[in-house]
Amino acid sequence: VVILVYVGSASAATDHTHHEVLDENGDFTLSWKFDDVNIEFEAQAKTRGWLGLGLSPNGGMPGSDIVIGWVKDGQAYLTDRYADEKAQPPVDESQDWELLSGYENDTHTVLRFKRKLQTCDDRDRVINKDTLRVLWAWNDQDPDDSTGPVYHGEYRGVRSSIFIRNTVNMEEESLPNDVLSYDLVMTNTTIPSTRTNYWCKVVDMPRLQAKHHIFKIQPVVTPGNEGMVHHILAYKCHINPNRTVASHEHPGHGCYTPNMPQDWMECYQGSIIVAWAVGTGDISFPSHVGYPIGDEEDSGQVLLEIHYDNPLLREGVADTSGLKFLYTPELRQHDAGVLVATQQVGFSQIVPPHAVDFKTEAFCNQECLGAFIDEVGEQIHLFGNLPHAHLLARNMRTSLIRDGVETVITRDDNYDFNLQSIRLFDEEVTVQKGDTIVTECTYNSAHKSEAVYGGLGTENEMCESILFYYPKIKMIFCDSQPHPLSILSFAGVEEINMEDPNWNGWVGAIPITKPDSMANMTYADVVESIVWDQDKAERFSQHIRAGTFAATCGGSTQSNVDTVSYTKEVRYPTPTVPAAAPEGVCSTSTGTAGPQMSFLLPLLSIMSCSILSTL
């Protein structure tokens, strides 16, 4: 036990660079700063007893690295503990948390302490750039010397966070002198009482006479709806003077439904301004980058799309959520762009049940990416990304292959659907003609009894990397999907009929023609007939990777690139020099083919309109 007499005045952690409120009532706050070796915290809890902080592998107590501290009779105490079960955590033999200061006032206990990011204690969690499940708790009694901390009762919770992350400090950056703002929000909208809903509205932006740059975007979430507003997308619509525009009071329409005006679909062929997801917070571009609006390609109209996740099926919930744009006529050096590198959303993505670590991989067609780079005349530079998948995802990785050599751009080995934060890179990553971008997702479906398909719903899956870059090119997305026969051949299918008009572009309805014993079955019939286990899921993942893929891409209507010509059947771009494994750590890690391609052509218009709206 570390003991320290605190001398000083009560003050907030103004020298810390990161701050979070861990509970809904604001009773437990955490501030921190870090360098290459250490991380320092200040925890403030509304108690005069003990407070505790834990780093959990999955949100539960077993396996957690825990620190508990308190102040008694003017002295601060801190203990390094661990948990193997749901019980009072025992004291760790290696006391790696160092108490720096502590005090209490009439209402709160405040402790400041630090630790190495890697301690070489096998009971400690490594603190790195992965998502962490942060446990918090307190009790209003100080621990007894003999019995230790008493049970926290209702004063406990868990929140996901990323401790080691870069941010753009707007206070340190030179802000523009001329700052304008606009709230792009829903109005008079009632969230539907179904689990997954995509809601759209096209609105007019303020009319600009010259090009401006958006330099910061803030979420505007209706109080009480934080658990239902899962992600928000904004698309800059291309010019169409006859497009249907909603009035300010209009509630909007369900996206991709007959009620939505068809000319709103055109906006998906514009360009993405921003993708925001739960846990992201404010989005600030680096000082040399801004998103262009008011330029010659801008119609002055924006499509706002919100994904509402309503697991409790609540009824009559009003919502006015959206985004606040901060923009300026003081132009920055580069125009920013957003590119989505993704597994094509739909039945071609299958996550088998009973799998602990099933991998899905998707990649950009390097020829198509190169054509868009040629069109702008220079290579692009990635400065951040937002990885996106759904409930089963546990690990996500984006990498770059150049001349056969693979380099990891970003990874999260403890991904959480409820914390989808934009990660700004330590160093910008250059992408040039001939490079391939790969997105890899690993899923845990051990608790599932049936296969999970890709799709829009929260209960479906996705595998996407949303990349922020400059200078802006006219490419919107690039994706890949396993060829249907590559998937079905795992179950013994020899031939499918892509020419049958009855399947109508839906992969799940593709008919089987050979062998005779499987004739007249459909794609969905075959997949659902497979009896899965962990070993079979692993073999299926390897089988898919060894087969062929349909690689496609999409651009804005202002581009001259013929994207249809790049729709091809290709092999997975296996690197000759795979990316090196992460540097060794000394403590427990936080988590750590078939017919010609004519079958894709009926899907191109659908994909170009909807692929980017499927966060």
Keyword list:
615 residues, 7-stranded mixed sheet, 39 strands, globular, disordered C terminus
How would you describe this protein?
With 615 residues, this protein is mainly β. 7% of the residues lie in helices and 39% in strands. The protein has a seven-stranded mixed β-sheet, sandwiched between helices.
In short:
The chain is mostly beta strands and 615 residues long. The protein has five helices and 39 strands.
Count of helical segments? 5
Kindly estimate the percentage of residues that lie in beta strands according to DSSP. 35-45%
Strand line-up of the largest beta sheet = 31-28-34-25-35-38-39
Largest sheet: 7 strands, mixed
Topology:
Layout: E1 2-5, E2 18-21, E3 28-34, E4 38-45, E5 50-56, E6 65-72, E7 75-82, E8 98-104, E9 109-116, E10 132-139, E11 156-161, E12 180-185, E13 189-191, E14 196-204, E15 212-220, E16 229-236, E17 253-254, E18 271-277, E19 283-284, E20 289-293, E21 301-309, E22 317-319, E23 322-328, E24 334-335, E25 337-343, E26 350-351, E27 358-363, H1 366-376, E28 380-389, E29 393-402, E30 405-412, E31 423-431, E32 436-443, E33 452-453, E34 463-470, E35 475-482, H2 484-488, E36 495-496, E37 512-514, H3 523-529, H4 534-546, E38 548-555, E39 568-571, H5 604-610
